[in-house]
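Page 42, continued from yesterday. The earlier attempt failed because a stray header line got pasted into the input along with the sequence. Redoing it now with the clean sequence only.
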Amino acid sequence: MTPPARVSREIRINANRTEIAAQEWKHGEPTKNVLLLHGWQDNSNSFNKLVQLLPQEWWLVAIDFPGHGLSSQRPEGAPYIVTDWVSDVRLVVRNLGWKKFTIIGHSMGAGVALMYAALFPDLVEAVVSLDVVKQMSDIPGTSVKVMRNAVIALTNYDEPENRPVEIYNSKQDAVDAWYEKHKDNMTKAAVEIILERGLKQTDDGRQQIARDPRLTLPPLYRMPLEQHRAVMKELKCDLLITKAKDSQAWETPEVEKEFLEMYGKNCSRFERFETDGLHHLHVDTPERVASKIVAFLQTSK
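This time it went through. Structure tokens are written below.
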């Protein structure tokens, strides 16, 4: 007999005048605290199916990063910078009262997880990184151009004509449009799951993409590769990295090889495995990674 689906409880966490929305699954006395961090432009719904395959006794909290899902947005004029996500995680964990915890992150969320675990090694027991080796680094020789374009885009955003209009006549139209933009990374079924939490109704009854459009602007700052090396050398916890075979490459082969070797040398335990699927395979086909995740974390200290 199939067990009943686990139902989340909506919670809100105040973090530096930002309200972070989250979904929580907690049953009885937890044996493990697990924070779930979604990817860029996604939201906590991306873990809803994976959660059903994780142990009932784990206390699971999946957040919407600021600007995503049901969380509040950064103040007007403020950019979204990766190091701010790390600060958000620290405030969330402090609010939850967790002294030790594990992080399962996807894409951007995995990069944040790796960085947090490297900065605070005494707090993080293990990291599961879904489909990335590390957060994307600044590309050498492009810093000035990228920063210039980011400043121009952010300051021009104040003009209404420069703000994208992402309003659709129906939910299906929104799903179709989002899928067309992201079909190299996710199936339409995955899009539907994410947009269940990623749409808001307008006053005239249409559907609008809920995430902050500023997330689509060029990044104002990306950590240089040398700084990434220095930070990731401090990563010591158990680490599992999954790789979707049909996902794009997020790093050059040389950089990926360098960091994988670093993890193998420095982490208390390191495993990596590949499976069929796109970048967002955990959203609609979590069974491809769930058993590996559970087996790895069950033996984590």
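Notes: The chain has a mean pLDDT of 92.
Reminder to self: strip header lines before submitting.
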